[in-house]
TrEMBL record, chains A, B, C, D:
It comes from Effrenium voratum. Residues 233-380 form the Acyl-CoA dehydrogenase/oxidase C-terminal domain. One of its GO terms (cellular component) is cytoplasm. Residues 126-205 form the Acyl-CoA oxidase/dehydrogenase middle domain. The keyword Oxidoreductase applies. Pfam families: Acyl-CoA_dh_1, Acyl-CoA_dh_M, Acyl-CoA_dh_N. Residues 7-122 form the Acyl-CoA dehydrogenase/oxidase N-terminal domain. Its cofactor is FAD. GO terms for biological process: fatty acid beta-oxidation using acyl-CoA dehydrogenase. This is Acyl-CoA dehydrogenase. Belongs to the acyl-CoA dehydrogenase family. Keywords: FAD, Flavoprotein, Oxidoreductase.
């Protein structure tokens, strides 16, 4: 497997690791890394360091090409070794997925205007898709989307409500999804825009995303027709293009931070004594660390397997569902055990283990709850089995 | 079982339920119910309402006597229907346990001075026992206690460090545990005291305890000899007296809030649709709610069983360990499933489910991590089995 | 709780325990206790001993009345301390449920003819309800029942296929369920009958039921009209009458044998050494035994809670579903851990732990798989919640 | 990963699959495939077919060389598609491991005499290592070995007891482990030998191994000195050589049969209806099948990862422990879910799912219980962490 990682990718991945461990991890206790994610000031400060260390947007080559998914996994896992790493290196969600999509589907003008400032790390972006449940909008089921786009001369006029829009607060680039009479469409917009109002930023259990997750009202947003991504009705197809890789890159980043939690918990267990011996010498603790080692390895193998599938040009829908479920559930078990191993220290903010536990709890829901993926996998199993019967 | 609950206890329990649901639950979204627990101002405001509704310290009768543990379970479960309920009604930790201990072990003077203002809800208290691991102090293993008390004339002089001291910030009464040449001792102190310095209040995953959890330095604290609880060397015996009931009352309170979470998640699942039907009509969701119903029932039965054991005058060490492990683990599963049922809403602060999930995560560690209880249970199983072989 | 057990019930329960441990357990290694359950010869031999020890049908009083469900739980748990205990004492399935149903719904003549020889332990019985899936018959879903009964003069003529008919091979009394034009009916029949052909006895994972589980063809079985239980169309009502208590008595018996497995595994762990200490001194082993102790206690409390519900005259449908799910799953965990604690010995027939593990695996399916009960619980949660919204 | 499988290996693996599905699976219902494994007659019959189909000992090339571990995984997984497949194709334990060891450590004479008839499928073999716990012998802890070998002229005289000796009954070749004054040794012996007495064949939960698992007394067994494998004291080293690959090949075979169980359960769920729809359309069932698909994929990835490690010449101790734990636990979950999906059918012998469930239960203990591997992993984590601190 590792053979398919080029020297260049390996070299930049290792540089990312050194950078995140040495220059970014110390910021974890910085008060600016708050509960709605790091402040814009802190983001800027960390990104300047990343540019300096030549690790900005490390998974995209200088010529604009992307490393393979297997190589991207190598790099993004390293960037995740701190919850602040992906923000610093510009490998985080939703930007990573947005850059991927723009690279695949954007026109040259669109790339120059919307993609370039993202790749350089100058701007952040948001992806306006999910809608509030109180109004019966689209959560896990995209067919329920209620936001509407109507053509008015050379402009589209968009109205609707969105929620859980990660990073909207502070973003400079937006991708907005809405239904038109031709089907779902995606629009590129400059942010902020007075027609896109942040009604509030949600309090959430996770806290690593700059800008947090926002609730949004879109009120007669006018978008010039040439800011549509592709053609009318291609919205769901583009959502699919973005879907599997974006889902997988979540796994990569969170894998990194789970590795870090395991390091912290293991060192703690090798230092702290109770009832006459080191914690790790208690099987009750040692077994948990061994289980973590297994869960981490399985997660890594699933990530690499799914990445290889995407690299072969397959859509990877089944594979990324399987990977998302297994990795998010496994990393949650890892985080939960790390908390437990560390006792009172584990539920305090004195190490990042507590934050990681919260982040990964959200991961079991973000990008499709475990149950939605199992439901979708079951449907595919049925289809395949009936076809063969 | 329910037969053993007197009408008086049932009546006050039901009054507590009405009070918590109607008057306290609305405060949950109050900004003063912050991440280090409710502010002193909010505590006062809620407690005035509790006095008004005649539900202050509801598990202690007007004559100072305590309701039985089975009755206390009935009352405290109701008080827990909001994370703010126990603070409002004065059934929360560590006060509930401290009042119990003072009632059992305090002299009349000590009760008048230290217990009375606690029972009236005028003052809060703290229990200074656990110590920082960084210095090798006592966490789950009390034999590692390093805080020392030396007799100097008619005073004891105490030095040491404590951590995870719940509610210390803002408390008026303290119970301090320290080693003397005669063994462990407990001391009653007025707070604040310049010799007891709060070095910081920890950031923790839970956020319902007023005053949060503090790190403390005790620097030449001088305590008059008559403020010792009982005799020198009785410290561990008193810790035992407090132990099982205090552990059990945690289960009661958290049970209440888990019931509330289940109510919220169930209503959500009966209102929200996805993929063409109500969430609850998806077996993936309905099964989780059914599992919760079972876990809640089992938790209730364990609590009542342990309470009945204590009411028979037994020490209940085994029973309270079994109950603490099973209830904390079961309620965590309940909370985790409620989060999952509610999807994005479940990891946001829009309902208390998200907070409950965090609170109960801590519960699996507070008052002895699951693993310490299993370890202790295994030792007792061994002893009993060898005796019978 | 224990107060509600009369001295008489307690006395006979304790006598059952002594009998099962001293006189029945030694038969466990008898080759006649084979893979399709004990042979008729062995059944007779054990039952003669039971009559001798005055423990035959111990949950039914000499006057024909039944002990309360809470008392029955006390007695049946004791009878289960060996997988052969229920057969020996006549507390086993399906006879226990059949006797219960006949006592509730039979006419005096029916009782004299069909119930009396069951209570005396002279005869065994079978309950013909479930049907083969290959033909789309009724498994967990009784509405799919295909067996038909047609009135022909003064007789009913019954045709159909049944499967998983426990104890049919060797039974003297049968209760046959079939659809008539008036709805489902139950018929009492003498066995064997040439019109009821045992096509084969299934090989199954469990092996404690005499007669095993049979596949049956009913071919023009003629039953006199007065052998119908109750009236035409009451079949499902009677199935309900039998349902909850029969389901609960499974829990009682299997609880007993899980207690026995825990005893065996614990003694093994207190005798056997590995890696320099007793197995039980390894936390990996001691924790499993502690978890078993908790699971057993929870199971006991659920059984007693459900029994008390039935004793209050409620139908107990929800309670028995909750109890069946939680007890069967908990006892399976107990059995699985006992196997694991005992290593190679645990998967061999040298102790009954291996058999118990297999028996309890089947218990998670018999009397409704876990999933069917969760499905039914979810529907009731929905109904109750919508009613309150 | 798949690139590293040669065309030759792929071709023979695919031939094995066709052979096992078409020619061997039908034997599963043959009465000669009994509870102590297939009879010698059935083994011979199936092996003649295997020779005919050119799939005898398919993981060893005609020139005596072994396929790589990654290739062996490809082949052995296919051979496991029936529990009788490995016996038929000669890829089963303990022969596969014994052949591997003899190939690595045997002299040319030893290979000609003891290995050749194994590779041709003419003879079966046994590995005499584990000892009865009743006498304090070596189970999971090889340091407790009590069997002794003493030099007497040009012969070694061996005395001791062994248990769980798989396939001893009917084997022609034995490898006996014993302690000498120079340390542990391995001896090659012809079987049967009057000094090696089978005291009984154990009843065990699994039933696929020909000859079952035997208890053995070794009473003054005289072995010529040139039948020692390697040199005196090399016994544990050879045990290590055999260990990781033999452990891994268990995972390969059992993976195959779990795939088969999943096929059977999935087809059942796509054919059988309950409560108005196909079983698979119930999320309670569909989710289980989706979880199986994930568990199977993770198992496959762990097997391939460990195989690649061994192919790089590493000892693979950590990797094979991690793989054995995760694969045996995952496949057990798969088997358990398949049983549950199939309801009453799942606990009957009508499909191989019931047998598979029992086989895999044993797998969690054979070759080191899960707990022993976790214990060993924890020790290695500690060592590595302390070295880096």
């Amino acid at each position: 497997m590792t053979d398919s990682i080029s020297d260049a990718a390996r070299e930049i991945g290792d540089r990312v690791e050194t950078f995140v461990r040495k220059e970014i991890a110390p910021y974890e206790q910085d008060p600016r890394a708050g509960s709605h994610g790091p402040t814009e000031e802190l983001v800027r400060e960390m990104r300047d360091k990343a540019i300096n260390a030549d690790v900005m947007t490390p998974h995209i080559r200088k010529d604009g090409g992307h490393y393979s998914q297997v190589e991207t996994a190598y790099i993004l896992k390293k960037s995740g070794l701190s919850p602040l790493g992906p923000v610093a290196c510009n490998t985080m969600a939703p930007d990573e997925g947005n850059m991927f999509l723009l690279g695949k589907a954007g026109s040259e003008e669109q790339k120059a205007r919307f993609l370039a400032p993202l790749v350089s790390g100058e701007a952040r972006s948001a992806f306006f898709m999910t809608e509030p449940s109180a109004d019966g909008g689209a959560g896990s089921d995209p067919s329920m989307m209620q936001t509407e786009a109507k053509l008015d001369g050379n402009h589209w006029v968009i109205n609707g409500k969105k929620t859980y829009i990660t990073g909207a607060d502070g973003a400079k680039v937006g991708i907005v999804m809405a239904n038109s009479s031709d089907g779902a469409c995606m629009f590129l917009v400059d942010l902020p825009d007075p027609a896109i109002k942040i009604t509030r930023v949600l309090e959430t259990i996770d806290s690593s995303m700059p800008g947090g997750h926002a609730e949004i009202t879109i009120d007669n947003l006018r978008v010039p027709a040439d800011q549509m991504l592709g053609q009318p009705g291609q919205g769901f197809r583009f959502a699919q293009v973005r879907l599997a890789p974006a889902r997988l890159s979540h796994c990569m980043r969170w894998y990194g931070v789970a590795v870090r939690a395991q390091e912290i918990a293991t060192e703690y267990a090798c230092r702290r004594e109770a009832f006459g011996k080191l914690l790790i010498d208690h099987e009750g603790v040692g077994f948990m660390l061994a289980e973590n080692q297994i869960d981490l390895k399985q997660s890594e193998l699933m990530i690499d397997w799914c990445a290889a599938t995407l690299d072969r040009g397959e859509d990877g829908n089944v594979e990324s569902s399987m990977t998302k479920v297994s990795v998010s559930e496994a990393l949650f078990r890892v985080a939960d055990r790390c908390v437990q191993v560390m006792g009172g220290m584990g539920v305090s903010g004195d190490t990042i283990v507590e934050q990681l536990f919260r982040e990964i709890r959200a991961f079991r829901i973000y990008d499709g709850p475990t149950e939605v993926h199992k439901w979708s996998l079951a449907k595919k199993i049925k289809k395949k089995t009936l076809a063969a019967m």
